[in-house]
Design a protein that fits this description.
By secondary structure, the protein is α/β, with parallel strands linked by helices. The chain has a five-stranded parallel beta sheet with strand order 2-3-1-4-5. Helix 4 runs parallel beside helix 5. The protein binds adenosine-5'-diphosphate.
Length: 196
């Protein structure tokens, strides 16, 4: 059974909004496991596993990886009955179907989340950040065209999740523009209001 001070958070935000950076910091702060589905997938690709081989073409194009592959990777590992009771999950869910499947599993295993942090940033600011990161990151999917397509995927398939979580009264919107420390402070302040 989950202890009362367990904390389970989801991080939503467009590519380049800072989910990964902030997710890592929040996990440290709350002593929780940090899970990035993008990192898990890149590790699978690197190891040449079957999942990695299936996922890679989607990732290279900037498409979302199909729900069933993602769910196979996440449901048990992150939300299973023996999983870490505290986590910060970034990059999942990205579709309403993923969110619904995750919720059903979480109810069964006592892993429903306490809040969903959404990092908000304007479209123009995003493009500027991602062009900069593309020049520096060395990630295969950080070329300008792919990045633009990832943003389109986010806007079409992931943005509807904001309504989904708002409807469940879980959404915490945070302005993602500013320096990294400042944004962390904002998230922590918003969460401490929320989780009291
Ligand atoms: P970003 O947020 O910058 O797109 P990520 O590292 O979170 O970076 O994701 C990289 C890629 O991994 C995505 O473009 C997508 O192809 C795939 N991916 C990660 N998480 C998911 C998910 N939950 N559903 C579908 N595809 C995913």
């Amino acid at each position: 059974m989950a202890a009362p001070d367990d904390i389970r958070l989801l991080m939503l935000g467009a590519p380049g909004s800072g989910k990964g950076t902030q997710g890592t910091r929040l996990a440290e702060r709350y002593d929780a496991r940090h899970v990035s589905t993008g990192d898990l997938l890149r590790a699978q690709v690197e190891q040449g596993t079957e999942l990695g081989q299936l996922a890679q073409p989607y990732m290279d194009r900037g498409d979302l990886v199909p729900d069933e592959l993602i769910l196979g990777m996440v449901l048990d590992d992150v939300l299973g009955p023996d999983s870490e009771p505290s986590f910060v999950l970034d990059g999942f869910p990205r579709t309403v179907a993923q969110a619904k499947a995750a919720y059903e599993q979480a109810v069964r295993t006592g892993r429903t989340v306490h809040a969903v942090v959404c990092l908000e940033i304007s479209h123009d600011e995003l493009i500027a950040r991602l062009d900069k990161r593309g020049a520096e990151s060395g990630r295969a999917d950080d070329t300008a065209d792919t990045v633009r397509h990832r943003i389109e995927e986010y806007e079409q398939k992931t943005l509807p999740l904001l309504d989904y979580y708002e409807g469940r009264d879980l959404l915490v919107r945070v302005d993602a523009v500013g320096d990294v420390d400042e944004v962390t402070q904002r998230i922590v302040a918003a969460l401490s209001e929320r989780l009291r």
